[in-house]
Amino acid sequence: FLTIDKIFSSEIGKILLSAKDLSIKNNSNLYFINLPNYTRYRANYKFKSKNLKDFVESLDIKFIDMHNEVFLKQKNPLDLFPLNMPGHYNSLAYREISEVIYDHTK
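The structure corresponding to this sequence follows.
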């Protein structure tokens, strides 16, 4: 389990800090899109993204969690994967994700 201190000193922390600096220099908005993977739903895995979300938001980066915004709204989140198998999302998932991103960024 990652603490905020561990995230800050990790590669993802360094990348987010660099991206935040770049977005400020370019006067642009930065969004962190949290995309869940197949295993989370297949194995009923309890992923804890709170520390990551807290860290991202502490940098004033907008956090969009597709688990909450898209996948939890499905009766069966595995229906958003082709043939309910691991890999990329299917066209329905990409459509839903793109609509959420559009709504958050317009």
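The CA atoms of residues 12 and 52 lie 10 Å apart.
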